[in-house]
Write a structure and sequence with these properties.
heterotrimer, A alpha/beta (429), B alpha+beta (553), C alpha+beta (487), B: alpha+beta, Uridine Diphospho-n-acetylenolpyruvylglucosamine Reductase, domain 2, Uridine Diphospho-n-acetylenolpyruvylglucosamine Reductase, domain 3, 5 domains, 18 helices, C: 487 residues, alpha+beta, Alpha-Beta Plaits, 19 strands, 34% helix
């Protein structure tokens, strides 16, 4: 779709303010009622999904040009989709997240990007990774001692896809390595793409760099096909979302699982046993890309059809993505299976979880905004009294590691795999 | 037109660089296009004027200083909170928009059942905070996304729970206003620093000049803080929601129940409403789901409570025999919530409700007694978090046939109104054909029972200009019906005399021409005189209806 | 002058009789006496409007009076010479009663006794202030916001007052509230089934609020519409005794919190003895018998399962009392619930009950919250001791209002008007206590007499706005000139 294709939505948005709050039925306090980091940080209406509709309409009508402020506004969105979920509590014909991203793409097409985005995209193009300063040559260094099968050389049941963050970030690599060991210890036949392992580029899509995303995605899809991949398991929520939702649109036809889904299954099957007590009170942060943005993709082609004069429907019926079927229970099942762990929930969870701030490339392009967003979440986590915040995405973890709450306090941040490791007997760690 | 550097700098000095903008992109997002949310002057295809700047004050002092600058330089200003409706936006090319988003504190006096709130404390958050201490607030029909302060100070403020809690003007205990001339007025007991417990006096109540049957929609300065009366909440400290989006449900325990009451004819319907007015048993009384239309309400309830269903399922659902049966059952209906303060109280209220049904020949709709449906409807009515379903069908709505007032009078004409709407639905394709009767609203617009507050939801497509124009014609026809029955302006035209259809303010001369013909023109002449006192530079747009006293007949 | 007035109201409704003028020159408060010039008795609102126009032309102060004597708050005593009393007691029609809407419309001269009797025929009743004077105007009582006994039904602070017809000081006449949106003809409105129900408005201002608590200083009200209630088929009154007022706070809060009771108030023994005792001796006797403090809790049931409603509230309230460490009783030493109920809701006998004990009294009342009342009571007793006034005589009445968000706190100071020392003491205490209560945060929402200065001195901005409003509605300052300190 082009930006102009969103015009009916722009004109049918009713300025209701739903996009600024978590679903109203779920609000438990004034403090944690907001859902949108962008308007939360900048405050002007412009930064809300409603504001973005109106801004786009003004741009299309020629009243607003892509000046510096407008460009920054457009890109200061973590593409977390919280607005989309809140909107769809009541609306069936607006796709506010798609629009936010399309507006970014419009800016990108017109050469309006942020300085911080340039090295990220340049590196994607040059080194096939979205972490500036990292090299393609080092991408699979993290896996060198793991005995992972190279899928281009031998068959394996499951393809493990670590993603850029786990591959390059030294403080996070251990988690990916442990994830591999965990699966291997459970008897999973695991391989990886070896030299063909490249960035999923999901973040490029969410930053509005559609061409770059398409190039990377199509290459990766080919690589998966050539390697005969049937099942992908990834510990990275961004990659998970990219494969499950974005690649699916481009024709990827493989089973995509996040590691929490796989580990949950293995625990249910008794293939992973968590026997060691981890006496800890934890709270769980639902990554946007694992939760509300990860619903199964259903191909659809059709057009709008009005019934009963003016009621909007689609012919044929169009799939509805409103966050209802994201991956929320699997990580909680895992936490429940760990002896000694007590889960205390934050106010904003599951489909209405607050973003970590790293989404949409904002950790690179707008670090101050990104860190404020993470700090808000740390405040919420600390308000539960938990000892640690658990998450299932390296981008979330990394952003939280650098953040402090409103009182300047930090919180221990653990990937769920780290907690699982602690709960396992020594010999299988 | 840009503000002079001197003025912009003066404003920036007040709030800081971060909280003011004159960027075209930012300012463009502070315009309203009334085809979407006109509330209530009928759809129009014009944008409201572009503000010269948008400014976000963080305190009463900052608001006061902004208003002083506006007076010094003759700049129109208007404060708004959630920016839903057109009434919150400026009406001239020489104006600035105040966005009150940064001011959102809530303080609660539990014992004396009051809350002191700032403008951006929306009803959902006020309710969330008050529930923690066993209290609740009246949420207007517009829903919990609305600013409680705005609905109390600036507009009507009645809703489903008003029968138990009163409408917001009844709940107003005291307020702090920056008058349009820049002076601060604290009404009631807070004026002398004695506390926020009483909104009246000393002597005549100055709050009387700040809001009437409805508030002045931002035309009388900026209300920066107010105290509201809270009400008993016998439920849990937060909603124990279950289920998945979009149909969360909550089991609130045995002392909170929701029923859809149905009646064989309008006479019985009205009699039951009167009985409820005369008793103290309702926590909420609202004709809610008929907003989807007489023909669709049961089917729409099935759609909105199922994450897998969508509007495209409507035709099939309408063929379902069970849904047909349920829809027929709730043709003349309304929803109620009863709340038992104790077990005994609940037992009494349940029996009293049954007694009313027995005396009026009414019944409880079966479908709405299903556990999930009950828990959905209960949560829906208590929080009013689904306000945007107003727009679900077509993307735009406006209320018509505001048959508010004496329920006995209303029922005499309601089916005539239904026929007009149904004929339009059948003969033209501008509005959604939902079955004529889409009358929804509170069973009482005031505390303790009295007037009803109704509107017929009329759904149209804001994107389809033919639909917008046709809807306008439909509304013109409704006005004829209103004139015939002496009902005054139709609901959809309530604000038609305070902002032009092109989005701009009325001039005084234009207002004089309108209001000199009012049944009691002195009302508007006094409003003029009061504006002269508190708003000598006439800086807040034309929502305040005024008549030059010398033009009074 | 005289001729014009006679022309407006007719000879029989005009008086310059010295005795009559004398009777309006003072009341039983400490307000300084001043004789009015004339007394006129208009028969309808058209005459009232004529009078106001005349007063503007001649710059003559008008003082509207609706109730009969004794007046108690100084508001009807002229503050400036050559004032004309507009005695509205002759306008005593009940214009309408609607059982269906539970609404009544009455003129200024209608008394509680008269109205309640008429309402009863329709199965209705009107909430009342505490034992109003027999000749008290219902209209004045509601306009001056005399506290109601049933705070739970006070959805609006102004309940049961809804709409009114007012002739402003500038001579313009209009209807307020919902009635202001229709034709300025009450009969036409009633014929169109419009019952003056909604009090707010008309339009974007609430003009009713310009005449409430105004002591007639903004205009003259010639009818009011009133929200009535169904006559209960069961009426009960329970009494909850306590040693100290503070002991009753939790209980009262609890009852309010669940919206129980149809009457709820707290009195000390002196106040209750005054209410119940029909002779001075009886009052003295009762003061010995009665508990120090009593909360009165009325419960009623009307048409809808009355027995069940009453019995469930009785059982629940009894449990609340237990939880709060107090007793929920049908009688206490010296009083039964029935007696208290009967005395509270019925108009006083010819002699106003507050005069029974010593012949005269001076009240001090203001608005505060229940949790602060003990602070004021303590301060009042301390001051009384300092002034040598018997604390035993101080009556205290705590009336929750507006659903319990605030209370009317009233101190009643009886004194013997024939004993100059007592008069002096009472006056001293009244003056000092009035100031002291204000310093402690007492809010004189109804600023009679010296309270006007005290209150408005604390609130310069309200004072400033009120002066400007007065200038709009009464530009020649002819309405009860000198009241509310607004010049």
């Amino acid at each position: 779709m082009a930006l102009n294709d969103f015009r009916p939505m722009m004109e049918r948005c009713s300025s209701c303010t739903n996009c600024k709050f978590i679903p109203f039925d779920k609000i438990k306090s004034m403090r944690f009622a907001d859902n949108c980091p962008s308007i939360g940080y900048y405050n002007f209406n412009t930064y809300s999904a409603r504001g973005r509709f109106q801004l786009a309409q003004s741009i299309l009508d020629g009243r607003t040009d892509l000046n510096e402020t407008v460009t920054e506004t457009i890109h200061s969105c973590t593409s977390c989709g919280a607005c989309d979920v809140a909107c769809k509590v009541c609306r069936y014909n607006l796709e506010v997240l798609d629009h936010n991203i399309e507006l970014k793409a419009y800016a990108v097409e017109n050469g309006k990007v942020l300085e911080g985005q340039k090295p990220v995209i340049e590196n994607l193009k040059k080194e096939r990774t979205m972490i500036p300063g990292t090299k393609k040559a080092n991408r699979i260094d993290w896996a060198k001692d793991l005995n992972l099968k190279d899928l281009f050389k031998e068959k394996a049941e499951v393809a493990f896809f670590a993603g850029c963050k786990y591959s390059y970030d030294e403080k996070l690599q251990k988690i990916a390595q442990n994830a591999v060991k965990l699966l291997q210890s459970a008897g999973v036949d695991l391989g990886y793409l070896g030299a063909a392992d490249n960035c999923c580029a999901g973040r490029a899509k969410q930053m509005g760099f559609f061409e770059e995303f398409d190039n990377s995605a199509n290459n990766n899809i080919k690589a998966f096909q050539n390697a005969g991949v049937k099942t992908i398991v990834t510990p990275c929520s961004d990659c998970y979302h990219a494969f499950k939702r974005q690649y699916a649109k481009l024709g990827l036809d493989v089973e995509v699982l996040h590691i929490v889904e796989y580990v949950d299954k293995l625990i249910q099957e008794g293939k992973i046993e968590l026997t060691k007590s981890v006496p800890m009170t934890v709270t769980y942060h639902d990554p946007c890309h694992l939760g509300r943005l990860s619903e199964d993709y259903t191909p659809w082609e059709g057009k709008e059809k009005k019934i009963f004069n003016q009621i909007h429907t689609w012919e044929p019926k169009r799939p509805r993505y409103n966050g209802a079927y994201g991956v929320y229970d699997a990580p909680r099942n895992i936490l429940e299976a760990i002896p000694g762990v007590e889960l205390v929930e934050m106010e904003r969870i599951r489909e209405y979880s607050w973003c970590c701030g790293a989404g949409g490339g904002c950790n690179e392009s707008n670090p101050e905004f990104s860190q404020w967003t993470a700090g808000e979440r740390v405040t919420e986590a600390n308000a539960t009294g938990a000892d640690a915040m658990i998450t299932a995405c390296p981008w979330c973890k990394d952003n939280f590691l650098n953040a402090v709450d409103e009182n300047g306090n930090k919180i221990e941040v653990l990937d769920i795999i780290e907690l699982v490791q602690q709960a396992m007997r020594e010999e299988v760690k | 037109m840009a503000l002079s550097r001197e003025i912009y700098q003066a404003l920036e000095d007040i709030v800081g660089k971060r909280n003011i903008s004159e960027d075209i992109g930012v300012c463009e997002t502070y315009r309203s296009i009334p085809s979407q949310s006109s509330a209530h002057y009928g759809p129009s295809e014009h944008w409201t004027p572009l503000p010269q700047a948008v400014i976000m004050p963080g305190s009463t002092e900052e608001v006061q200083n902004i208003v002083r600058i506006c007076n010094k330089y003759g700049i129109e200003f208007k404060a708004s909170t959630t920016f839903w409706a057109t009434m919150g936006y400026i009406g001239s090319d020489y104006g600035i928009q105040l966005d009150m988003r940064r001011m959102k504190s809530i303080e609660i006096d539990v014992k004396n059942m009051t809350a002191i709130i700032e403008p951006f404390a929306i009803a959902a958050t006020v309710q969330a905070e008050t529930m923690k201490v066993g209290l609740n607030l009246n949420i207007p029909g517009v829903g919990c996304s609305s600013s409680t302060l705005a609905s109390t100070a600036g507009w009507a403020g009645f809703g489903p729970a008003s029968i138990f809690m009163g409408a917001n003007p009844e709940n107003l205990l005291g307020s702090e206003w920056i008058l349009p001339n820049g002076e601060v007025l604290r009404t009631g007991s807070i004026g002398s620093g004695d506390g926020w417990f009483c909104g009246e006096g000393p002597g005549p109540s100055t709050r009387g000049i700040l809001r009437g049957i409805f508030g002045p929609a931002g035309s009388m300065g900026v209300c920066t803080k107010m105290a509201i009366r809270l009400h008993p909440w016998p439920g849990p400290s937060d909603f124990p929601t279950r289920g998945t989006i979009p149909a969360y449900k909550a089991d609130m325990g045995d002392n909170l129940k929701c029923y859809t009451l149905c009646f064989p004819d309008w006479q019985s319907w009205a009699r039951s409403v009167q009985y409820f007015h005369e008793s103290d048993i309702l926590y909420i009384g609202h004709r809610q789901f008929s907003m989807f239309g007489r023909n669709f309400k049961a089917a729409m309830l099935r759609i909105i409570t199922d994450p897998d269903k969508q509007l495209g399922d409507l035709p099939a659902l309408l063929e379902d025999e069970e849904i047909k049966k349920q829809n027929d059952s709730m043709k003349l209906d309304y929803q109620v919530v009863i709340a038992g303060m104790t077990e005994r109280d609940m037992a009494y209220k349940e029996k009293a409700l049954d007694e009313i049904l027995s005396q009026t020949g009414g019944w409880k709709n079966e479908m709405m007694l299903e556990k999930d449906m009950h828990d959905f409807a209960l949560l829906y009515l208590l929080r009013l978090g689904h306000k945007n379903l107003n727009y679900v069908m077509c993307g735009a709505y406006e209320g018509t046939f505001g048959l508010s007032g004496n329920v006995w009078k209303t029922i005499q004409v309601v089916e005539d109104a239904v026929k007009i709407k149904r004929d339009w639905e059948t003969n033209y394709d501008h509005i959604a054909a939902t079955g004529g009767d889409s009358a929804m609203g509170g069973t009482s617009a005031i505390g303790g029972g009295g007037m009803t507050g109704w509107e017929f939801f009329t759904n149209f497509d804001a994107y389809d200009k033919e639909s917008v124009r046709g809807t306008c014609k439909f509304m013109d026809g409704n006005q004829e019906f209103h004139n015939k029955h002496g009902f005054g302006p139709d609901f959809c035209r309530w604000n038609a005399d305070v902002r032009h259809m092109n989005g701009y303010n009325y001039t005084q001369e234009e207002h004089d021409e309108i209001f000199k013909n009012a049944p009691q023109p002195a009302v508007y002449a006094y409003q003029y005189k009061i504006r002269e006192v508190v708003n000598p530079n006439n800086l807040c747009g034309s929502y305040l209806r005024t008549l030059t006293p010398s033009k009074m007949k | 002058m005289k001729e014009k007035l006679i022309e407006i109201v007719g000879k029989e409704n005009f008086s310059d009789n010295a005795e009559i003028l004398e009777s309006f020159s003072k009341d039983q408060s400490f307000a300084s006496p001043m004789k009015p010039w004339f007394v006129v008795k208009p028969a309808n609102s058209a005459q009232v409007q004529e009078l106001v126009k005349w007063a503007n032309e001649t710059r003559t102060p008008l003082i509207p009076v609706s109730s009969g004597a004794p007046h108690c708050k100084g508001d009807t005593v002229p503050s400036v010479p050559q004032s004309v009393i507009v005695d509205l007691s002759g306008m005593n029609k009940i214009i309408n009663i609607s059982r269906q809407q539970r609404m009544a419309v009455v003129e200024p001269g209608v008394t509680y006794g008269q109205l309640q009797a008429a309402l009863a025929k329709e199965g209705l009743t009107l909430s009342t202030s505490l034992a109003p004077r027999a000749n008290k105007s219902v209209l004045t009582s509601v306009l001056e916001m005399e506290p109601r006994l049933n705070c739970i039904h006070q959805f609006n602070y102004t309940e049961p007052l809804r709409c009114c017809e007012v002739t402003w000081g500038d001579g313009n006449q209009l209807f307020t509230g919902e009635a202001g949106n229709g034709p300025k003809d009450i009969q036409k409105q009633l014929d169109a089934e419009k019952f003056q129900v909604l009090s707010n408005g008309p339009n974007m201002m609430d003009l009713l609020r310009m005449v409430i608590q105004a002591q007639g200083s903004m205009g003259i009200v010639t009818w009011v519409s009133l929200k009535c209630e169904l006559i209960p088929s069961i009426k009960k009154m329970y009494l909850v005794p306590a040693k100290k007022s503070v002991d009753l706070e939790d209980f009262v809060y609890k009852v309010i919190r669940v919206r129980y009771s149809d009457k709820l108030y707290v009195m000390n023994k002196a106040y209750l003895a005054n209410l119940l005792g029909e002779t001075s001796e009886k009052v003295v006797e009762l003061k010995k018998e009665l508990p120090n403090w009593v909360a009165a809790v009325g419960i009623s049931g009307d048409s809808l399962l009355p027995e069940l409603k009453v019995s469930s509230q009785e059982a629940d309230i009894a449990e609340f009392a237990k939880e709060c460490g107090v007793h929920f009783l049908s009688k206490v030493p010296g009083a039964t619930g029935e007696e208290v109920l009967s005395k509270s809701i019925n108009p006083s006998s010819e002699k106003y009950w507050k005069q029974t004990y010593k012949g005269a009294f001076q009240d001090i009342f203001f608005i505060t919250t229940l949790d602060k009342t003990s602070k004021f009571i303590e301060a009042m007793y301390e001051l009384a001791i300092e002034e040598g006034y018997s604390t035993e005589d101080i009556g205290v009445y705590i009336q929750p209002q507006h659903m319990g968000t605030s209370v009317h706190l009233e101190f009643s100071l009886p004194y013997n008007p024939e004993d100059s020392k007592e008069v002096k003491k009472a006056k001293e205490l009244y003056t000092k206590a009035s100031k002291k209560m204000s310093l402690l945060g007492g809010y004189y929402a109804r600023p009679y007499d010296i309270w006007a200065n005290i209150q408005l001195n604390k609130d310069a901005q309200s004072y400033s706005i009120q002066k400007q409003l007065k200038n709009i509605f009464d530009p020649n300052n002819i309405m009860n000139t000198g009241k509310l300190t607004i010049k």
